[in-house]
Amino acid sequence: PPAVSQQATRHARRIYVGGLPPTATEQSISSFFSHALAAIGGNTAGPGNAVVNVYINREKNFAFVELRTVEETSNSMALDGIMFEGVSVRVRRPNDYNPAAAVSLGPSTPNPALNLAAIGLNPNDNPDRIFVGGLPYYLTEDQCRELLGSFGAIKSFDLVKDRDTGNSKGYGFVVYQDTSVTDIACAGLNGLKMGDRTLTVRRATEGAPGGGAAPAMGPAGLGGLAGLGGLNPLAGVGGVVVNPLGLATATRIVVLTDAVSAEEIIDDQEYQDILEDMKDEASRHGLCNNVLIPRPTADNPTPAGM
């Protein structure tokens, strides 16, 4: 019977959406994901909304989104990191998802032909995407666009916001319509003083000076991943020593440089928020065992790695 079939496939027709902004509603989530899926060509069951049900957990800012088919659900997994109401959200399989049982129900991975560029969701493949850090928290998205727009027309701009308050977290990502201005904008904006903050502006695919180029950590990535190359910013922090001889050997430790400023980690709550964000981003790429952020204290105002 259809009811039994629907129940049997339910675990494979739901996605977990984490990091939702407080303004999210069942209707806005349903409409957003239905339209996003249609825009990338992920609808396989014909016209109409692909989302059939939404459950929101307000306390923990996540939702379970149920779709009409297994294939559309798998295609929705490609929406991980999409900007929803100014916040980059996480898209995962729910805990009750049974991969073994799902094999016979339909595709378990997104269709590789999906047009993610239609919604600007291909940041890791766009070498002209710029990371803009150190933005004053009081700047609105329009004011940020006005600042960045002085170098040329903007194709897309994502200002990363706190998932609970909706306030700016002081960094974002921009892509210009004319990619030839990318390096010009980076050179013109990087190091610019704005009040008590200093802008850090570079291609999102680049590490800090002195580190090798490597992919950024996704849509809400906090700076580039720098190659070790003799740098040892975490030496002596928690007993961890990172490649002290600068050897090009494999390591399970990734070093991020210029990811945050000292001012951003003085406040306990802001420090915890940044730590949580970094853990979330790192977990997008595999199992994250731990995140260490050197932090000044009264006894040690300049710890190793600062």
Characteristic terms for this protein:
globular; 4-stranded antiparallel sheet; 306 residues; 14 strands; alpha+beta
Model description:
With 306 residues, this protein is an alpha+beta fold. It has 7 helices and 14 strands. The protein has a 4-stranded antiparallel beta sheet with strand order 2-3-1-6. A 4-stranded antiparallel beta sheet has the order 8-9-7-12, with helices on one face. The radius of gyration is 21 Å and the shape is globular. The termini are far apart.
Strand-residue proportion: 15-25%
- Class per helix and strand makeup: alpha+beta
Order of helices and strands: HEHEEHEEEHEHEEHEEEEEH
Query: Quick check: average pLDDT?
Result: 77
The total strand number stands at 14
Q: Approximately how much helix is present in the residues?
A: 10-25%
Low-confidence stretches: 207-249
Radius of gyration, in angstroms, nearest whole number? 21 Å
Q: Specify the oligomeric state.
A: single chain
Largest sheet: 4 strands, antiparallel
**So how many helices?**
7
The strand line-up of the biggest sheet is 2-3-1-6
- Write down the overall geometry: globular
